[in-house]
Amino acid sequence: ADVRLACPLTTGLRDMLGVTDEEGQLLVRSACRCDDLEAEVEHPDYIYFDGEVRAEPADGCRRITIRLAAGAVVHGRVVDTSGRPIAAATVDAGGRKERTDAAGRFRVVCTERHVSVVGRAPGFAAAVEDSPGGDDVELVLPPLSGIGGRVTTESGQPVGAGPAPVAVRDY
Fold first, then answer.
1. Closest by alpha carbon to 72, among 93, 55, 42, 51?
2. Which residues contact 18 (CB under 8 A, 6 or more apart)?
3. Which end of the chain is less enclosed by CB atoms within 10 A, N or C?
């Protein structure tokens, strides 16, 4: 996890930066003697922490404990209307984006418990599903379809050949 600690001193805030090891241990060497610290902790599998922590004396140094809440894991597949996987589709869940693998599978760790999952791919319309996390989500992307028609004057006469800008709104 990436950790930033701020120690309020008489001259303002002093930032101390660190990274945890595989055991979650953090050692920041500092002359700061504050007991109340501001902490920010970021890890891709957990919900972002931003708050106050209290340093307690232990074993000749001051220790803090920060407990991170696990993020929601959203996983599933992106397929077309025939059930074929769509590789390299973009999946957005709670602001985190990932690409699907060759089998159309994805896994996104979100910082929220309940998220809307959006799948997009070139040549396909987007699909949206809600997920509380932990569920297997299948996003079915329909192919984009063309729109045809006729452009006429107010009196119904066809407009001749040439560019005809058209705005299409999806209601």
1. 93
2. 3, 5, 26, 27, 28
3. C
In angstroms, the Cα distances linking 91 to 104, 106, 154 are: 10, 8, 44
Tell me the one-letter amino acid at 57. P
Residues whose CB falls within 8 Å of the CB of residue 75, separated by 6 or more in sequence, listed in order = 105, 106, 107, 108, 136, 137
What gap in Å lies between CA 42 and CA 74, rounded to an integer?
19
Ramachandran region, residue 73 (left: φ > 0; alpha: ψ -120 to 50; beta: rest)? beta
pLDDT (tens digit per residue) in 37-60: 888 888 877 777 778 888 777 766
Q: Are 89 and 141 in contact (CB under 8 A)?
A: yes
Q: Which helix (H) or strand (E) holds 66?
A: none
- How large a percentage of the chain has pLDDT more than 70? 86
Alpha helices of the chain — where are they, by DSSP H? none
User: CA 139, CA 120: separation in Å to the nearest integer?
Assistant: 9
Beta strand 72-80 with 90-93: parallel, antiparallel or unpaired? unpaired
The answer to whether the CB of 79 falls within 8 A of the CB of 140 is yes
Would the pTM of this model clear 0.70, i.e. be above it?
Answer: no
